[in-house]
Every structure is written in structure tokens, then in C-alpha cells.
Amino acid sequence: MSFTLTPENLDDLAEGAAVLGTGGGGDPYIGRLLVERQLRAGRDVRIVDLGTLRDDALVVAVAMMGAPTVFIEKLPSPEGSVAALRALERHLGRAVDAIMPLEAGGLNSMMPLVAAAAADLPVVDADGMGRAFPEIQMVTFNVAGVPGSPMGIASDHGDSAVIEAADNDRMEWLARGLTIRMGGAAYTASYPMSAATVRETAVPGTLGLALRIGTALRTAREHHRDPFDALTAALRGTFYSHGRVLFRGKVVDVDRTTVGGFARGQVTLAAGGESGDPGDPGDRIVITFQNEHLVAVREGGHERDGQVAAIVPDLICTLNTETGRPVTTEALAYGQRLTVYAISTPAIMRSPEALACFGPSAFGLDRPYTPLEELTPATP
Amino acid sequence: MSFTLTPENLDDLAEGAAVLGTGGGGDPYIGRLLVERQLRAGRDVRIVDLGTLRDDALVVAVAMMGAPTVFIEKLPSPEGSVAALRALERHLGRAVDAIMPLEAGGLNSMMPLVAAAAADLPVVDADGMGRAFPEIQMVTFNVAGVPGSPMGIASDHGDSAVIEAADNDRMEWLARGLTIRMGGAAYTASYPMSAATVRETAVPGTLGLALRIGTALRTAREHHRDPFDALTAALRGTFYSHGRVLFRGKVVDVDRTTVGGFARGQVTLAAGGESGDPGDPGDRIVITFQNEHLVAVREGGHERDGQVAAIVPDLICTLNTETGRPVTTEALAYGQRLTVYAISTPAIMRSPEALACFGPSAFGLDRPYTPLEELTPATP
């Protein structure tokens, strides 16, 4: 969908993007703050439907690279994203016509808006992940064979580089190495392609979807309705059809390290036996993450012990049980009362080629992909 | 000086370059082999005096980056250097007119010849280090304020990148990060500048000097004369006036690790009390290296215990005692009979600015720079 961002719908968009961030994608608050500054400075953020672009318009995916744990300590700048974009433009010898989010989650759905406002370019309502993923080759563009190179990358210290990698896996590997040396966070502009190619390869409408999710959660809070019911209703009729409450409980353990440029770890929730908790006391769920949540496994004394409740690329979201507000992996803390909510991914993200790129095996997980709606049927 | 390389003078040039490599710069045998292949393929290697170039000719410094320990396991390719050069040319939108060695030591005095033959360009008889140094900002160009960026860098896997760093220290830092991810060895093309600027900032004539040193050592061997006397005689009348035998003995300890993309360690030699050894039995010398030898310190029971015999940027060379052939840090082994020979550096490498860039403190050494000729006076 096409729309112009206002301070009002920015809050909803940021919250919905944090849900699609599936625990990762960086702190949405920071990204929202940066977009807000652009709006206050009188700049426009124009989000345009893919259908409105000329076939040969040059579109570039903009994102931050690095561990979300670093972004908390170091506020990203609009200048960094624009520097990455300009480095790529100099290399291509051509101006970019539109910016596109690389991923539809958290900070990385906000940074393209910041860059677009700063560079006076429109943002395309589409992305390459349909959620957040930790690595830059984990995109539908790559699944379709679109090269991510040449890729512009810039630091907060006045450095930039253009990488031409042999393939998209090596692009991730090289850019990640530079990102670590750039201080653990870098600005990237990659996958330069025509709008025609974006139309064939992107997950469409994900900014619109984020706005819809955020609006549903806010409205539920305003009207004292259950936010999870509202979320499930909002997903109905989109490409992300199925929403499921997997678990409700308290965080009893968080194991998190920043290693190799990623935030990696596990979070364990235990059911408290409180009203509304769908589980017996003693039931647990363990979620493994690499920036984003990857797999949720049930633990406990009953027949579902060891059962996978949801697995990547389906979305596993940790949301505040009272408010439905998303909690990212770097903000997880002992004692938080959370609801684990899962969302099914569109068909374009479930093909064998897509699963090879960002399914369980791409993360070294020893479990097959099974669609959420089979793992966890809807409660009637 | 200007000359065209032949198979005959290649051997001398490679050996002299290995002496200037001061223990580092990579295995000279490998570089010589690669140049030989170019000559056998009928390509010319034309070395030209700085004076012959037009003021506005574009000159680029070519070098391998990485730990010499890696080059032994992975033979460098002409294609890699040309790929780095082409990446830089695309960025500059201009063809390079001449290649220059970044450093005058070991493998890195040979790779520019390989690249120049493969790209059909002349090589300028000058360099930025006047020896070998482990880091890319340790050049007289940097001392004079010439930016090393934009810098082309390429791997053996079909990847390339162009780095535009905020300064030359950051260029080293970022390129080293990429080099590690490129497999521990990478091809670089940096410090693009006009021939006029090269004339003002480079150490001139270092390829000619290497040829002179190599010829002196070979001739001494052929005529059964002392190679170290020949070396000292060859240096007389050049910018590298003073040569000194510091120590003669056997390797009794080598401590070497490859860490952070460098070969770091220490080698200890003990005097054997044999005929011709200038020292009592029990005398030792300990040389600390980071790719190249940095400081030689005397140990033993007499009054010179703890005394610095020579220190960076003066050259400390480990040469086979019988033949005068240089032994690089990665080839050092227990039991080798070596002569530690030091060479004074030209004035351009001893200014306060130069010492700040590649003197003892630049390597974290806690000792002041003292010229070789003061530390170790000539024996009459």
C-alpha cells in the first residue's frame, strides 16, 4: 500500500515491525526515535506500493548490520545509511530511485525510512525477509538468484566500502567481518535491482502489514480487548494467515552472548499456573535465538515434552502478556511475563529453495521445518 | 634505476629483496617463482626510474596483505593483484599508469612485478617502506599525509572491495579485517597518487638497491668471499650506509604464533664459541618480530646484557652464516646457524614523524629509537 507517514501511524508501524522482528531486528524504540526526528525536521517519509514504480527504477535494500546488543549502546545515524547509499551510487554510476527495507523487522524496518527521508527518496512497501533474519543472504532475493553485490557499507567513523562478492554467502561473510571492525554495527545498501525484479522476488506489503499489526494492538489496548485476539484477527486475510498463542508464562532463564557479531542464546519461560495460562505449572518453553527467535521447544512432564511448537522461518514473537508489546532478545530479562506468539509465513518463504536459504538447516538446527499450522493447530 | 628484468637478475633481485624484508615480507622463493612464470610466458617486467614518469601519471602501490605463514600454504596468483587493481581503477574511473611496490621486502617486492607483467604496466623503482613493515599505514606516504584510500582489495575466491577509510590507520584496520575473512591473505592496490607525489614521498631506488645487494651476495659466494663483507661494501655509497654484523650463533628457541592476521613471536640465538663467532659462549641475542624483526636485544653474563643491538625502523636481518642467504621469520627453526646483520635506514625514515608512524612506539615497544651506528659502532 502507499501512504505518507505521520507521527500517529509511525508508533503503530514501529510496534508492528517489532512484532515482525520476531525477537530481533534491533530495538524498535531507537528506530522510531530516528524517524520521528526526520518528521520533526519537516522531511517526508513516503511509502509507495510496488505497483507504482517504473520497471527500470533502481531500488536498493537498506539495513543496519550487526548485533542488536550493540545498537542499544550506539545510536545509529541517518548519515551512516546515506553514506552507504552514496558509496553504492558512486560505484554504480547511477542514482538510486527508491529504497526498500532488507528486512521487515524492528530497527531495520525503521532505518530505510530514516535513510529515505534524509535522501529524499520513496520507500517501497516490500522487503526481502518478510520478517527479520540475522544474515544478509537470508532473503527471498537470494533465493531467486539476485546478487546482493555490489554492496555499499559505511561506519560511524567516516569509512565506507563497496564489496563485490563472489556470491551472497561470501558477501555476508565479508561484510560481517567489516562490520565487526567498524565497531559491531554498520550501515549497508545492497541488492541493487530494478523495480521489475523487486516485484518478482520481494515479500510484498510488509510495511503495510506492520502498520496493520501495530494498529490492531494499540486499538485493543485502548478498548481493553485482548491484544492477542486482535493480532490473530489482523493477520486473517493477509499472506501471514495463521497466528497462535504458543505459551504464556514467566522468564526463568536468559542465556545470551554476543559472539561473531551476533546475539546468540536461549530464553526459558515457565508457566505460572495463573489464570489464562494455557499450560500446567511446571510446563516450560525454551526458545533458541540468533538475533531472532529460531525455534520454540516445549519442556515438562506431559506428553508434549520435547515437541517443537514453532520453527524458523515461521515467526516466534515474545510479547508482553498484559499489553501485547513485543520484547526483543536483547531486552529479555528474568521475571518478565510474556506470551509466546507464532505467525505463519507466506508461501514464497516456504519453498524448498527458501527453506535451504533461511529454514532450520541454514541455522544449523537439527530439526525439519514443519508449518506452524500443523505443529500447533488452532484452538476452536 | 631503469632496467628490464631477466631470469638472471631476477634471482639477485629476489635475494636482495629478502634481505630488505628484514625477516618478513613473505617467502621470497614464492614471489620469484611467480615472476619467473611471467617471464617464461613472454611477458616483460620493466622497472623504471621515478624520473622517467610524467608528473600526472597515476601510480598505485601493490602488495599482498596477511601473515607470511599463510602465503606458504596458499600460492598467490597474478589474477588476484590484477583484480585489486581493476577494482580500484573502476572506482577512480581512470586507468593506472604505473605500479609501485608498497614495501621493498620479500614477497611484496615481487608481487608488484607479477602484477605489472600481467597488466602490462611498468614498475616504479621506489617504495613506501624502504624495507618491509607489517602494516599498510607504515609508509613514508602516510608520514607525508598521502591518503591510502581509495584502496582496492581482492581475494582468491573472486571477491573484491574498495575501501574509503577515514584515515590510513582505519584503512589498515578495515582491510586487515577483510583479509582475515578472505582467508588470511589478500591482494591490495592502495595509495593512488601522481608520480609527482611519489617523487616527494617515496623511498627511491629500493628495487635497484635490492638488485645490488643480491648481486653482491651471489658474487661473494661464487668467489668464496665473506658474504657479510660483500654486503657491507655494497651498502656503502647508498642511502642505507651502515651495515653491521650484530651476532653469529645458533637458533636455540623460536616462539611463533599467527594472531590477528600477523606472525608474531621471538627467536633466540646462542653463540656457539665457534671460530668467527663474535661473542663468548653463553652470549645470546633475542629478536622480537611482528612479521618483520623489530628489535634485537643482547642477553648473557657480561656488561652488554639487556642492551639493544638494533631497533626498528633500522633493518634486522637473519642470514645463513655460510651463504648469507636471508631466512624469513616463518622459516626460522631450531639449530639453524645464522648471522644477525643490521642495516641503517635512510634519513626520510628517521624523522620524528616517520618514527611516530613506524618507529618502536608504533609497535608498542617500550624503548626509544637509537640509530644503529650509535648502538653498534663499526669495528675497525
Automatic annotation (TrEMBL), chains A, B:
SUPFAM superfamilies: CV3147-like (SSF160991). It comes from the Bacteria. Residues 9-164 form the S-Me-THD N-terminal domain. It comes from Streptosporangium longisporum. InterPro entries: S-Me-THD-like_C, S-Me-THD_C_sf, S-Me-THD_N, S-Me-THD_N_sf. This is DUF917 domain-containing protein. Transmembrane segments: none annotated. Gene3D superfamilies: CV3147-like, CV3147-like domain. Residues 167-372 form the S-Me-THD-like C-terminal domain.
